[in-house]
Amino acid sequence: MRFNENADLDTSQIDDLRGGGGGRRGGGALGGRVAAGGGGLGIIGLILYFLISQLGGSGLGGPGGGFELPGGLTGLSSGQTADTSQAAQACRTGADANTQLDCEVVAVVNSLDGYWTDAFARSGQTYQPPRTNFFTGGVNTACGSASSAVGPFYCPGDNEVYIDLTFFEELETRFGAQGGPFARAYVMAHEYGHHIQALLGTTSRVRSGDVGPTSGSVRLELQADCYAGVWANHATTVPTSSGRPLIVEVTQDDVAAALDTAERIGDDFIQTQLGGGQVDESQFSHGSSAQRELWYTAGYETGDPSQCDTFARGVDLG
Fold first, then answer.
1. If you average pLDDT over residues 191-203, what whole number do you get?
2. C-beta of residue 245 within 8 angstroms of C-beta of residue 237
3. Contact at 8 Å (CB) between 108 and 185?
């Protein structure tokens, strides 16, 4: 995946909550601070599920419930606010997105907002973009406090996405994922999928602690994967404010890398490869590797959000 080097980037929806540094590829900071929050929902917290189950600790809350994650918070102080000025200076064009991880995520966020704005408008609705927060170590949100161990997550309590950018390195080193910009974009697009669910009221259909192979939690995650695939289908045609597409190339290798990432965050893969145990479908909360690939592919091949109804009566989840 490559970005149009001359395209302008918009950092208005980005809050950088990390402490000083350079903001270059590898997770360097752009600067800024964060305000404290209150209780909700972790999303790619499949990873956290195994950290907690193996190490002991409090449970992971479902939709509308609270979660408290292990690990100390760093650089946080109640009442402080985020600073976007350094991000604006560092991430100006697609050329920056092609060389800097922070700016790559900014560009993907711009593309996601552009696609979903148009998709909602076509259905007569108004899209409300989420804010995306970069943090290091830990963060306080309207869904409670979270450490980096949770991975990227969406908080419906404040309608914001949170990510420690070192997660992408973790995907490649600990999970053995191929990685690359389109695989990273899949992760962000999945979290945006949860925002779409919150806007449409889908999130409220899932009960806290609902797990199992056909549970509401699994359906929610698979639908978010499908929404990610829908965006991926349109990625090279979503225009910037200048009218030109921000993303100029997506290859089959890019698509394969995204599918590889989906596979490596499936419940069965995590249980057997990282949890060191047997597959226990009764504890599924995100879906199997095959299901995650299936629903991402469904979105990618159709480019149609209406094909992502994992809650439909009699639907085959795969």
1. 96
2. yes
3. yes
Contact 35, 109 (CB under 8 A): no
Kindly tell me the sign of the dihedral angle through the C-alpha atoms of 47, 53, 57, 63.
positive
Residue 283 to residue 292: CA distance in whole angstroms: 16
- What span, in angstroms and rounded, lies between the C-alpha atoms of 311 and 171? 29
Res. 225: pLDDT tops 70: yes
Residue 112: C-alpha distances to residues 13, 24, 50, 187, 233 (Å)? 12, 22, 30, 12, 12
Place of tokens 């404290």: 36
pLDDT beyond 50 at 24: no
Whole-angstrom distance, CA of residue 98 vs CA of residue 293: 26
139 by DSSP, 3-state: which?
strand
Q: How many CB atoms neighbour CB 200 within 10 A?
A: 13
Cα distances from 161 to residues 75, 139, 260, 311, in angstroms, run 19, 12, 23, 23
Q: Tokens 């980005």 — which residue? A: 14
List of residues 6+ apart from 158 with CB closer than 8 A: 37, 40, 141, 142, 143
Q: How far apart are CA 76 and CA 139, in angstroms?
A: 7
pTM more than 0.85: no
d(CA 112, CA 116): 6
- What DSSP character marks residue 245? B
- At 143-153, the pLDDT tens digits run 888 888 888 89
| pLDDT > 70? residue 31 | no
Mean per-residue pLDDT for 255-261? 94
The beta-strand segments (E) located in the chain are 2-3, 14-16, 131-134, 138-141, 144-147, 153-155, 160-163, 247-249
DSSP type of residue 307: G
Task: Label the pairing between strands 247-249 and 2-3.
Answer: antiparallel
